[in-house]
Amino acid sequence: MMLETLVIISLLGCTHSQETQSMTLEEKTSIRHQIIEMFDHAYGSYMKHAYPADELMPLSCKGRVRGQEPNRGDIDDSLGKFSLTLIDTLDTLVVLNKLEEFEEAVRKAVSDVRFDNDVVVSVFETNIRVLGGLLGGHVMADLLKQRGEKMQWYHDELLHMAVELGHRLLPAFNTTSGLPFPKVNLRYGIVNPLSRTGTESDTCTACAGTMILEFAALSRLSGESVFEEHARKALDVLWERRQKGSDLVGTVINIHNGEWVRRESGVGAGIDSYYEYLMKAYILLGDPVFLQRFNTHYSAIMKYISQPPLLLNVHMHNPTVSVRSWMDSLLAFFPGLQVLKGDLKPAIETHEMLYQVTKQHKFLPEAFTTEFRVHWGQHLLRPEFAESTYYLYKATGDPYYLRVGQSIVEKLNTYARVPCGFAAVQDVRTGTHEDRMDSFFLAEMFKYLYLMFSEKSQLPINIDDYIFTTEAHLLPVTLSITQAPSQANATEDTSVSHDEDLFTHSCPSTETLFPNNPSFAKTIRDGYKYLTGVGRALHSLPVREIELPLHDNGIEPMEFLKSMGISLTSLKEMTLGDPTTQKEQKGVYRVRIVAEVGATTEEEAVVPHVVQLISPPFLGRTVLTAGPAKFGMDLTKQEHGVKGSIVKASPYTACGPVENAAELKGRIALVLRGDCMFAAKARWLQQTGAIGVIFIDHREGSNSDETPLFQMVGDGDSTEDITLPLVFLFSCEGAVLTAALEEHHNVDVLLLPKERQLGHDKMEKPISMNIKLLLTQEGEMEDSVGGPTLQFVLENEEVFSKEELIGSEQQDGRTQPCSADSSQSLNSNAGPET
């Protein structure tokens, strides 16, 4: 036992010393060559197997063409049939000194890429990836041409393409507020009836606030001021709509009236690049207004959101309250932004926390809890952590960050490399892959890694002459002096008082930050070395048992626990394990599920949905109340809902491979609740090509009158891959639907929010009247009764028995499995007008 302990201590010591020792020039050269080989593998696989498609599917070894692969929802809005990965990679080729490949790629882009496509794209993604890629490519091509080395045939073709694309994005800014629509049709714009967009009312803060670098550069390179004007206007609106008391902004805003839709505030998904672009707009354009705004926001971030080493989301109106107990991986860019600001200490602290999480899980999970457990297990090969590592190395010169960069390279090669490129990781806990290699992997990851291990003399350009966009495209900082903004572009100076420091108006200086103290960064890092418990022995703690009250006794409580960041092991598995090791597991609880709790909280109100039967003989008169899901397609954003024929899945629980996949393709699947999680069922059914799922409760007799509606939740991991519309029917309403299917075989339904059901605004209110019945013998009617009367004559020979009466009512369709409130009559003649 002692020998084993000594070996473990020796290994830990070796790892620690490797992280702290300097890196030789030969080591850096070796790693740089490895990065080039990895890039060649990824870019070569795209060009061989995918081009001219937008992205590579590295597991299938083919291109992802929108419309030919199963729809992934909003993720596919990045794809516009414009060879996305090629354009996104253009300036990376120059940074990696692949000038021959760059010239060939520019020729392909000019000859093959067209933007007159009838496709709806994300304004944000198209701006940062395609417009930014074209501008970065143009700047590089122009530079090489001026040197007389390459590109002598080039005559601003990429710039002309950028101007065309810019004009195709401009219709998105046609709103009353000046905030852009989140989507636009490249061919038809917004208002055209053929555009299939323009109905959205909300956009994220980052989506509206991450336009200024690309649009301003486009204006100054082309001479058309309209682009910069619109981008500045959008930033003005966001600044004006900030919460004046806290100086924070929310995550989602209404593009028409400027009201906040989601008020949580952080530095991760939904807000991230808004802050980044305020700082970088000052660097690129020289306008002090952007720096003043950034400094104001930054002070608020450090006051409310930053809780070193954590960065937590808070409520913008009540910023002392944290609104969630997990962080998303996109916030990993923030230490790099703090380096630009000159605030090194919190940058080092947060970066070290992120590094410890990667050591625990191999990669940064898409989201992780404040206790560093996996919240969403996906890793999409995001570059933000490498970006911050690069900035910290350039700022400190500490070889520790080269070792961090080396670990990124090694983990990509070990855990993400596949024969046809690099594949995203579906779950960092299992290491399973996902068939996607997003364009940002080539645009950003390889730039930051290559620059980290390169000397200035080894680069074909002076990297200090450029600012990185959020997609790592290169824009020259000389734009601010070579092309002065027009008077129309000037933003009003709205100065705000805030605490100023040494670097409020200047770039950071390492000599000033830590003079004669090369170990400055290490002294900060050491306090977070064992933050996640990785690298040191765990102290023995007893297994404690707690009881949690949870709703229902089915499988969904497991999802509730996972959403809290609690990892679950069944008592059976623990019993089978080694009893001696159980007691040594840190923070392990046995959980016993008991009792029920109330339904959804008021803050998370459930939007009622319906399943409306629209085929004959129902014609929209049968409407079943349904519950929504927190994942999958958001039906509240689908103007006309989702229409399709219903088919029962086989097996009915759909907890494994579906046997009648061909029958389900293009149809809406009926599936029984139970045996596995909603998300698992949805994934199996999505693979069949189904266009929607209706879950039916397995608890007999449940109905929407007696049981509150609830929202179905995922399985604790990311459900971004699930894009189907999902609704839930209680047993009573489900029986109506299955009975209709059995009787008519071909039943079409409409899935949509209750308030949008067909005929909802045309239904007449039922007429009520008071009828006074007087029971008299024949011929004894009182003469004193005035006004209209109804006379019922009961003859002895036509008295029905109880059983006959019930049977008659059932044949007439008047007795239903559910009450009239939860579903209207199944009989086609018993509509609202009856």
UniProtKB/TrEMBL annotation:
Required co-factors: Ca(2+)
Q: Does the keyword Calcium apply?
A: yes
Q: Where is the active site?
A: 125 (proton donor), 272, 366 (proton donor), 384
Which InterPro entries did the record assign? 6hp_glycosidase-like_sf, EDEM1/2/3, EDEM3_PA, Glyco_hydro_47, PA_dom_sf, PA_domain, Seven-hairpin_glycosidases
List the GO molecular function terms: calcium ion binding; mannosyl-oligosaccharide 1,2-alpha-mannosidase activity
**Cellular component terms (Gene Ontology):** endoplasmic reticulum quality control compartment; membrane
| Enzyme Commission number(s) of this protein | 3.2.1.-
Chain intervals with Polar residues compositional bias: 808-834
Primary residence? endoplasmic reticulum
Q: Where in the cell is it found?
A: Endoplasmic reticulum
Which pathway is this protein engaged in? Protein modification; protein glycosylation
Q: Which family does it belong to?
A: Belongs to the glycosyl hydrolase 47 family.
Instruction: Quote the protein name from its UniProt record.
Output: alpha-1,2-Mannosidase
The source organism is: Nothobranchius korthausae
